[in-house]
Write a structure and sequence with these properties.
Elements: E1 4-13, E2 16-26, E3 31-35, H1 42-49, E4 57-62, E5 65-66, H2 72-77, E6 80-82, H3 95-103, H4 111-116, H5 119-138, H6 154-167, E7 172-176, H7 184-199, E8 203-207, H8 211-217, E9 220-225, E10 228-233, H9 235-239, H10 242-248, H11 252-259
Parallel strand pairs: 3-8, 3-9, 6-7, 7-8
Antiparallel strand pairs: 1-2, 1-4, 4-5, 9-10
Helix pairs in contact: 3-5, 3-6, 5-6, 6-7, 8-11, 10-11
């Protein structure tokens, strides 16, 4: 059974159909990328899957359970986490505290214990801090743990956001343009990190405009155009699909060259 299954998903805004009848699945340890020209509906699709938008049609299933329309926090408790195209970082907090925030979702304890700083609350706090430090080591930011997040480079902030998403302990991770705006070195670091997360068994759904990264990492690629799925398959198949080439127009050569 797929960890994430999308069946016939669709939504309209003001009578204009943004996404229509899109279906696909993502298995544990698999990287599925959603690509398409600007305005194809990629982020809208992400927003429906992650509970930001309520679909007008179709279903989202997480490990066999229907979760369509659940709030993002409830989806996170069930194991679905995401990053955003525009960074959602607490710029004036430390790098470490930005990741600790992600651990709070699974912390359990009496409110009074937290307010009074009782031993149970202190143990939970130490565990969250230790978990956050381990994630920062994993994403290459351990030495920056005490720095203010806003002082990091753009590429480091992208990795920080992934670390915080991983703090939720997701089974499914949605990454919305994780390499956007990054230079070649930063993109390579994010490339490595995504592959490592997938190797750990997490199902990854990726939206990304860097076709070289997409073709290198993806097990399956789903192509959208004007809100509809026009192709699905492995990188070799998708890169040679006539509909994909036509949809990308001037970008078609880039799609083919990325695979080659």
């Amino acid at each position: 059974m797929s960890l994430l299954s999308v069946q016939g998903l669709g939504i309209s805004f003001g009578g204009l159909s943004a996404v229509r009848d899109v279906s696909f699945a993502v298995n544990a340890g698999e990287i599925v990328s959603v690509i398409g020209p600007n305005g194809a509906g990629k982020t809208t699709l992400f927003n429906m899957i992650s509970g930001v938008y309520l679909p007008k049609a179709g279903q989202v299933r997480l490990d066999g359970e229907t979760v369509t329309g659940l709030r993002p926090d409830l989806l996170a408790r069930r194991g679905l986490s995401r990053t955003f195209q525009n960074l959602q970082i607490f710029q004036q907090m430390s790098v470490l505290d930005n990741v600790v925030v992600g651990f709070h979702l699974h912390e359990r304890g009496p409110v009074l214990s937290d307010l009074l700083g009782l031993p149970g609350a202190r143990r939970r706090s130490r565990a969250s801090t230790q978990g956050a430090r381990e994630l920062l080591e994993r994403v290459g930011l351990a030495r920056a743990a005490e720095r203010e997040a806003g002082a990091l480079s753009y590429g480091a902030l992208k990795r920080l956001e992934i670390a915080r998403a991983l703090a939720v302990r997701p089974r499914v991770l949605l990454l919305d343009e994780p390499a956007a705006g990054c230079n070649a070195v930063e993109t390579e670091e994010i490339d490595r990190l995504i592959a490592e997360v997938a190797d750990s068994g997490v199902a990854i759904l990726l939206v990304e405009h860097d076709m070289k990264l997409v073709m290198r990492l993806s097990h399956t690629i789903v192509v959208l155009d004007h809100g509809e799925k026009i192709a699905e398959g492995d990188p070799a198949t998708v890169s040679r699909d006539p509909q994909v080439i036509e949809a990308y127009l001037g970008a078609s050569a880039e799609v083919i060259d990325a695979h080659g």
